[in-house]
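Justification of computing resources. Each target in the renewal requires a structure prediction run like the one illustrated here; the chain below, 320 residues long, is used simply to show the kind of job we budget for.
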Amino acid sequence: MQHRRVGESGLVVSALGLGTMTWGGDVDFAAARALVRSFVEAGGSLVDTAPAYGSGMAEKMVGKMLATDVRREDLVIATKAGFSVRDGGRVVDTSRGALLDDLAGSLRRLRTDHIDLWQVHAWGDAPLEETLSALDQAVHSGMARHVGICNFIGWQTARAATWQQAFPGRTRLASGQVEYSLLARRAEIEVLPALRAHGMGLFPWAPVGRGVLTGKYRTGLPRGSRGASDHFAWFVAPYLEAKSRAITDAVCRAADGLELTPEQVALLWVRDAPVVTAPLLGARTPEQLAPYLALDEVSLPTPIVEALDDVSGGRNHLRG
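Resulting structure tokens:
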């Protein structure tokens, strides 16, 4: 698998990342182990997780694999802090103490002495300088090698990056992580330009439109899919309206002409878009992961990219 530098930082990761949001819930340890084995055998290195995923179980699974299945040096571990689910509600706490407590917990669950990329999971109410000082402390202490942000909108990204670049000694932000796909292109308006301006890489989550761009929802809700589940139906539902169906149909037509699958076309469009470092894959089985791992030497023809741009919202001005 190809590897890419994360923005202007010194961090290098595989061109695809393995996401773990469903680990500890829909994905048990046996399935997670099979996913990591397939991913690493294909040359993948980036595994993205968070304390909030499976209430810590996703990190524990990765930690167990580091002890039994994969060498620490073979993985680039990205995790997060500042977000949790308590009593069924979402809690964002980006205070210095909360972030550093999360980091300590992540290191313990992951059974490692450092995080390769430590990210603020969401914008919070704590003063930004307090939040970012926790990132500085994590790097200066050796507990984290690089830092980034997740789910910040454009002005938040620019403000955080500018603050870190303002004085020597502060740790520059290496990356941002937001949703980005043919069904979710709003990041092109402000987030991606901000990332580019500040030399940061992008890790898109849900690059296949929360599974919708696979085409499996064109005739209903397949049994066993996220859209048919009690706990993930809300996640898929926004992309089951008429506009999304038209985009999915276009992806399926392109796939037929290129002898690819719809999910491969959707991923390639994201993987090779400007600013993108590595899309994060939410595959739950090795069978779902395999089509993406076969794309290392494949790219979309420019006319197909432009046609998909047109049908999904217009020209991507970042392409130059």
